[in-house]
Design a protein that fits this description.
- With 201 residues, this protein is of the alpha+beta class.
- The chain has one domain (2-187): SSo0622-like fold.
- The chain is 35% helix and 27% strand.
- The chain has 5 helices and 9 strands, in the order ααβββαββαββββα.
- The strands form 2 sheets. The chain has a 5-stranded antiparallel beta sheet with strand order 3-2-4-8-9, covered by helices on one side. A 4-stranded antiparallel beta sheet has the order 1-5-7-6.
- The longest helix is centred in the C-terminal third of the chain and has 31 residues, at 157-187.
- The protein is elongated, with a radius of gyration of 19 Å.
Amino acid sequence: MWELRRDEALSRLEEHLKAGRVDQDIVDLLRLINSLSYAFTTSSCSGRIQLYEAKLPGSKFDMRTTGKWHRPISLEELRPLIKGENLWLAVLPPILHVSVKRGEELRFLQLLRDSGFKRAGIISISEDEAIIEASGTERLEAPLILEGVRVYRDEALPLLVERANQLLLKSKDRLRRLKEVLSVEVAGGLDNIGGKRAPER
């Protein structure tokens, strides 16, 4: 059954890729994970800068996104979007959900931790699989407007944009390190658990 779910998930991923519903800067990483015989991805986000309207940060029910970027932004492209009653600027970290075949969950968790994903753990488990969630720590949510009142000084806005970009780039670097670790695993190099050489495949 796990292999069947894996085939179905990989097929859905290809459909989403064709429809443009996958963050392009994470595609290579997803393909690396999915090339492992014991794992497949179920959902992912590469990390982003987001501008949204909501009374409280992170509220999914009354949130309206007014800007979203998976790359660093400029002050010039942000300024025209600063309007509304309640506006937040957020940096959201990368997040991965991966199904791992039972018996291999600790191995995959070690790969994540070797690459710097300290927030990684099993969120559900069954007879034949463990679902692992990994997320970065690069997060920022700052109010720009509250109840129609701007809560920042103009001279502070460039600093806020700079910090947001720094956090985003840090999260992208975390993904790059994960790609490097997984490339070794896929190539059958040194096993990341115990420092022993992986068996020939």
